Structure formats: C-alpha cells, structure tokens
Amino acid sequence: MLHYHPIPTEQARAYQADEGDAYGHRPERSTSDGSGNPCRHCLSYIPKGADMLVFAHRPFGHTQPYAETGPVFLCATRCSAPDNPAIRPEIMKNTADLLLRGYDSDDRIVYGTGEVVACADVELRAERILDHPKVAYVHVRSAANNCYRLKIDRP
C-alpha cells in the first residue's frame, strides 16, 4: 500500500499567512486560470477564478546538495489535507507524465531510481522504486516543469 503526502498543514498555513518561502520571499498571489494548478496541500486542482499562491518550495527539512527548490501552487484560502493518505489524490489523476525519484533516509537521491512515467503507471513504478533497499520515499514531480507534486511512501 502507498501513502500520498501533501506539504504539511503547518507549512501550508505559514504560506497562506504570507510567511516567507524557501528563499524568504512572501508568496505571490494570483488567480487560477483553471488549466491545472495543483494545490500541494489539498492535492486538488485549484478551481478557475480562485485565489492561489505561487512560491518557492523546498520539500526537505534542511539544505544540502540534493534539496531541490522550485515553484509550486497552493490555495490562497485554508484548504484541508486529504483525510486518507492511501487514496490516490486528484492531482495524480489524468495528468501528463510524471517524474518519480527515490530518496534515502538522509534525503539524498538514490541514483538509478529516477524515471519519467505515465500517470497510469505511477503506483506500479513507485512500488518498484520503494523496493530498493536504500529508498525511504519517492518524490513525484512534473515531468515537463520539474515542479514538486507530493511525496509517496509506505506506512
């Protein structure tokens, strides 16, 4: 069984309160055009016309050479993380190819685990990556833009 993890609620609330992002900048405010702006907290697409935030996010606890930072979207108003981490979230359905990459318990990339996969194959490929003895979790990113989507692990 896989678990899908959004950015933590306390981190989402900090961004929604205009606290600094990974570079110390306040999130930019924008309006969703409805063309696929995935919120990294509720793991749903932000509806057309809804306010959203754009900011630099680093999904790692500390800086180090493998701690990538990139732009992500978040609902500007409070949203809720999914109740059940075992259910495939909306932002993992009907999307373009995704980049999967395995990381060890020290947040380092495990070489040989990165691959671009079709959306329909994410679970199968994530399971295979998680079978690697050094992999603790998998990051899912946009294959086209390399933007962080979410983290997958096993309970």
Can you walk through the features of this model?
The chain has 155 residues and is an alpha+beta fold. The chain has two domains: 8-75, first zn-finger domain of poly(adp-ribose) polymerase-1; 90-153, no CATH class. The protein is built from two helices and eight strands. A hairpin with a 5-residue loop joins strand 7 (137-142) and strand 8 (148-153). The relative contact order is 0.21. The model has no long low-confidence stretch (mean pLDDT 96).
Task: Summarize, please.
This protein has helices spanning 9-16, 122-130; strands spanning 3-5, 28-31, 51-57, 70-75, 98-103, 115-117, 137-142, 148-153. The strands form 2 sheets. The protein has a 5-stranded antiparallel β-sheet with strand order 1-8-7-5-6, with helices on one face. The chain has a 3-stranded antiparallel β-sheet with strand order 2-3-4, covered by helices on one side. The relative contact order is 0.21.
List keywords for this structure.
single chain, 155 residues, first zn-finger domain of poly(adp-ribose) polymerase-1, 2 domains, five-stranded antiparallel β-sheet, DUF1203, DUF1203 domain-containing protein
